[in-house]
Write a structure and sequence with these properties.
Length: 587
């Protein structure tokens, strides 16, 4: 019964994990030279400043001259005293014209972030090519990396939860739990190795084959994410090494409290390898965030992993008498404590990640968080059913003893027959626990997506920094273009949002409305931009269908001016039309 539930839990990751590239936490705060500026003399360096510390790659910068030829530059590095900066040296002599800089760095929370900017020496050139497209995320690498992260979360929850279930719930037999615990250890080791091998391909948007380059393996060992993965491997192999070093007779004499203390220390250390490399390691209140994230992970493992252990115990219980009522009763108390910890730490982490109520609906992080909350609500509903059946099972196992009245005189009255215990079918408790496990797998899948999504606070900071750099200029350009294909029902409008609507990196969103003013799902939409005064374009925004709207997360406008936005709307296999409207782009 667990295998279909596991496949069902993996399905959202396979679909959503390859739908879009992973976002990052670091936000570009300033550039020197500034994006789109014209300089009288050639600069010696290009310096980027971010909202947090960043890691550098061997190919963090690509600089192109006015003829779109790549320049030879020095190695990427940090500015003096600034781990939140990235700098590259330029050649001594630069010709007159517009230069394009494409960059890619690694955020402190281990996710890559990229973009592009332009600057001109002497004057802007009319023949400047469009900025080279940023390296697209390799779908195979992204999918493998996402699945490995999910399996790591799943196996950690199963491993720690099984240990907590055995230590606290004390089932009468534990031999049947060795198989899932061993499977969790093996899966966790393999997923950790896979994450280590995929680290460089994930950062560089390369194919999975790049994982086996010797330089890639050594580079990963120098990064914080790589070192934490190595520590995780060492922690997983440490118990096996200690068990192999101690004789079997000596292992049997070890005090139970010492074993529990060692297991608790190991569980906290393993959890820290996650919280020290994800969103908690960057941003505001880092120490408190790491503590909260670690407690959140431990509570999640105790509840969801213990739930899997309970379900596995039910599978090996042939009759109600075979499982003492104290086992589900103890797990019910363990789950209640875990839910309390999850609620407290979850509220803090949501506040830290969102920053505002508006980010709950306006950012991908907020919408994913809402989906996770809905899955948690379903999980709590299933848990409530399980708790109700557990209470009935406990009462049935310990029936109330009837009171016999004492006569005033004469012999004592015979005892009253005990009241029949309420029937508690064990299969109903099994079903509710299975439903709880299925919801738990979905929660883990959404948690994996959250760790790969830019927090709402960082997304808001990105918009705010763009607004500060363009004081007095609207933070977004919104235009509505009507269209009519001439076919029945072929009329409507396209609402296009270009954010922030200035030179540099922009996000593009488009919504198509039908003749009745409602949302219309069209099979095709293409948006291009042309700058007639510079003979530049058309530049394809490459918007993709996101299920109700069309968007492109990053599109770079190299020059200011009055651009022409062209929208090609295809309403059927035979009917399409191209309409246009002017768009003013400023620095």
């Amino acid at each position: 019964m667990l295998l279909p539930a596991l496949l069902l839990g993996l399905l959202p990751v396979l679909v959503l994990g390859t739908a879009a590239p992973a976002s990052a936490h670091a936000v570009l705060r300033a550039t020197d030279p500034a994006d789109g500026t014209v300089l009288s003399t050639a600069p010696r360096h290009v310096t980027l400043t971010f909202t947090e510390s960043v890691g550098l790659l061997t190919d963090s910068f690509r600089v192109y001259d006015p003829r779109n030829h790549r320049l030879r530059t020095g190695p990427a590095g940090h500015a003096p005293g600034g781990s939140d900066t990235a700098r590259v040296s330029l050649p001594a002599r630069l010709a007159t014209g517009t230069y394009t800089v494409a960059w890619r760095v690694v955020s402190a929370d281990s996710h890559p972030v990229s973009g592009a900017l332009t600057f001109s020496v002497g004057k802007r050139t009319a023949t400047s090519a469009a900025p080279p497209p940023d390296r697209p995320e390799n779908r195979a690498t992204t999918a493998l990396h996402t699945i490995a992260r999910y399996l790591a979360y799943l196996s950690l929850a199963l491993l720690l939860g099984t240990a907590a279930f055995v230590a606290y719930c004390r089932p009468p037999a534990t031999a049947h739990l060795r198989a899932p615990a061993l499977a969790a250890v093996v899966t966790l080791v393999l997923s950790t190795v896979a994450l280590y091998l995929l680290r460089v391909p994930y950062e560089e948007a390369a194919s999975p084959a790049a994982a086996f380059r010797p330089s890639a393996l050594t580079h990963t060992a120098t990064t914080r994410a790589g070192r934490l993965l190595l520590v995780r491997l060492a922690l997983l192999l440490l118990p096996a090494a200690v068990a192999a070093a101690l004789p079997k007779s000596r292992r049997a004499r070890l005090p139970r409290r010492a074993g529990l203390a060692a297991a608790a220390v190991l569980a906290v250390a393993l959890s820290l390898t996650w919280s020290a490399s994800d969103h908690a390691s960057a941003g505001i209140q880092v120490p408190a965030a790491i503590v909260s994230s670690t407690l959140h992970l431990l509570a999640m493992a105790a509840w969801l992993g213990g739930l899997a252990a309970l379900l596995w115990t039910f599978r090996h219980t042939r009759a109600p008498a075979g499982l003492p009522a104290t086992v589900p009763a103890r797990f019910s108390r363990l789950a209640a404590v875990s839910v309390t910890v999850l609620a407290l730490t979850g509220v803090y982490q949501s506040w830290r990640g969102l920053g505002s109520w508006q980010a709950l609906t306006d950012t991908t992080y907020g919408r994913t968080l809402l989906a996770k909350l809905a899955a948690v609500a379903a999980l709590l509903l299933a848990a409530a059913c399980s708790r109700a059946w557990t209470v009935r099972l406990t009462r049935a196992a310990v029936p109330a003893r009837p009171r016999v009245p004492e006569p005033a005189t004469g012999p004592p009255l015979p005892p009253l027959p005990p009241e029949p215990a309420p029937a508690v079918p064990l299969h109903l408790l099994r079903r509710s626990v299975l439903a709880e496990a299925g919801a738990a797998l979905l929660v883990l899948a959404l948690t994996t997506l959250l760790t790969s999504t830019v927090p709402g606070r960082a997304a808001t900071a990105s918009v705010s920094s763009g607004a500060q750099a363009t004081a007095g200029i609207p933070t977004a350009s919104v235009m509505t273009i009507p269209f009519d294909t001439g076919a029945p029902g072929g009329r409507g409008t396209v609402q296009i949002t270009l954010d922030p609507g200035r030179v540099g990196s922009n996000s593009v969103q488009a919504v198509v409305y039908g003749p009745d003013g409602g949302l219309s799902a069209v099979p095709g939409l293409r948006l291009t931009l042309t700058l007639p005064s510079r003979h530049l374009g058309p530049l394809d925004t490459r918007v993709t269908d996101r299920g109700g709207y069309w968007s492109a997360p990053a599109f770079t406008l190299p020059l200011p001016g009055t651009w022409t936005m062209r929208a090609t709307v295809r309403v059927s296999d035979l009917d399409q039309v191209t309409v246009s409207a002017p768009l003013r782009v400023t620095r």
